[in-house]
Amino acid sequence: MKLLLVNTRLVVIMLVALLLSSPVTLFAQDLSKANVEKVLSDAYNKFKDVKEGANADYIKELATVDPNIFGIALVTVDGQVYTAGDIQSMVSIQSVSKVFTMAKVIEEQGHQSVQDKIGVDATGEVFNSITAVERMRGKEINPLVNPGAIASTSLISGADSSAKWKNVLQVHSDFAGRQLSLNVPVYISEAGDNLRNQAIAHLLLAYGRMYFDPVEATDIYTKQCAINVSAKDAGIMAATLANGGVNPVTKKKVVSPETVMYTLPVMSTAGLYDDSGIWFYNAGVPAKSGVGGCLIAVVPGKFGIAVVSPPLDKAGNSVKGQYAIKYVIEQLKANPYLIQPKQ
Ligand code: GLN
């Protein structure tokens, strides 16, 4: 009897010791269906009435898009698609396209080629800055702002303009997992009014940093920006990056894991133009915005998330997009820099 009592006491002491020494999981991630659906619906309700920001209007057609469109899509690397709000309405992808064209160039030519022929440092300037090109004499421009993006488009393989465009549209469609198409009114509206981008392309040509006819390269770039996407399309595109280049819904290998490895850091440092640092400080994940109101973010190895909401802040980034994605990442404890210490 005495022996039994001693043994029980010993077991209790050992259990308490074990409990005290085992690491406490402070940041348990819960990506269960119930939790993700709750977080997305909370994000939608929390931000749906935000009235900050305004549609871009320097491309006339964008000013006419319904500012109340608000949709969120989160797609996991297992291909689960979670949505809240309006995921049917389509907007032009605009600068979010720069990611997929850059990825295609990396895939075709290797990462060194993008570093050497375009550059990968953030310019820290507005997306259509001409002075950034001039200051660097055409070197060290960045594929996620207009000059580097037009240079990227000029590097896409294809014997002529139409072959290059076909290639650009195809890679976007593969990332989205369905055949995407052009928003013709947006394309026509911007093509008739893109002298600034034409000027950038010609300045790059003068510095030997434009790799196709500058007028045609700008035209393909303008078309690429006018590809229509819904929040769901953009969420799947982001998830394909999160999944190392394999579309988690169609299972198609779109680009290699190495291509994704070189793409995400550029999104981290330059995805939200001159506000990229503020975004990365607050959200900790690679992201990319477009002036049509689309914003995507990637939690590597976990999920992609996208928001479509046209009103933009001064830097040209979707206001509700930033609020909603940051909220979801926080609630899901998905910031990769939130580190569980080893005890
Ligand atoms: N097509 C737009 C432009 O070139 C894209 C800009 C953006 O989304 N930031 O001005």
Structure explained in plain terms:
The chain is an alpha+beta fold and 343 residues long. It has a single domain (2-331), classed as DD-peptidase/beta-lactamase superfamily (Beta-lactamase, 3-Layer(aba) Sandwich). 48% of the residues lie in helices and 9% in strands. The protein has a five-stranded antiparallel beta sheet. The chain has a two-stranded antiparallel sheet with strand order 3-4. A hairpin with a 4-residue loop joins strand 1 (71-76) and strand 2. Helix 3 crosses helix 4 (111-117), helix 7 crosses helix 11 and helix 9 crosses helix 10. The protein is globular, with a radius of gyration of 23 Å. The model has no long low-confidence stretch (mean pLDDT 93). Glutamine is lined by residues 94-95, 127-128, 146, 190, 197, 225, 290-291, 316.
